[in-house]
Amino acid sequence: MPSRVGSAGRHLAVSLAGAVPGVSSVTEIHELLGTLPFLEGADALTRQTLEATAERVEWRPRDVVTRQFHPADHLYVLLTGKVDFLIHVEEADSELRVGGTDRARACLGWSGMRAPYRYATSIRCVQAGRQRLAGG
User: Fold this and answer.
1) Is CB count within 10 Å lower at the N or C end of the chain?
2) For residue 124, with 0-12 CB atoms within 10 Å meaning exposed, 13-18 middle and 19 or more buried, which class applies?
3) Which residues contact 99 (CB under 8 A, 6 or more apart)?
């Protein structure tokens, strides 16, 4: 799994969306990322890069997380909350909902990890996750 995205040399950053109680330290982020199936078999440098760039974000309902066809620079892991997947088609005046998820640890924006390194869908927050962080 490459840690580099696109020809501009940007690094793929992992954003942890929502909150898991107590996940705040580097060790806890390391342990959380270790539970994600898509990182099984990743080399040490890739894991270290992702762990070093991991950050926590929180979305509000209607926030746009990714935009279809935009260059990808983040891979999101949904911890809590709910998102919709949307596509834009020429015949429609608005984006069409093609799916959604509220599954904890769902990987969002993964299409940006493959050529042409762009998001295949727009992702919009439907339900915010609760922020219940210790010490944060």
Assistant:
1) C
2) buried
3) 84, 85
Which pTM value belongs to this model? 0.72
The tens place of each residue's pLDDT in the chain, 136 residues long, gives 333 332 233 334 566 655 444 455 667 777 777 888 878 888 888 888 877 778 778 888 999 989 999 998 888 888 888 999 999 988 878 899 999 999 888 888 888 878 898 999 999 999 986 433 222 2
Task: Tell me how far apart the alpha carbons of residues 24 and 48 are, in angstroms, rounded to a whole number.
Answer: 16
Backbone angles phi, psi at 3, to 5 degrees: -95, -10
Provide the CA 56 distance to its chain's centre, in angstroms.
Answer: 10
**Over the Cα atoms of the chain, what is R_g?**
15
- The phi, psi pair for 45, rounded to 5°, reads -65, -40
The pair phi, psi for residue 71, each rounded to 5°, is -55, 140
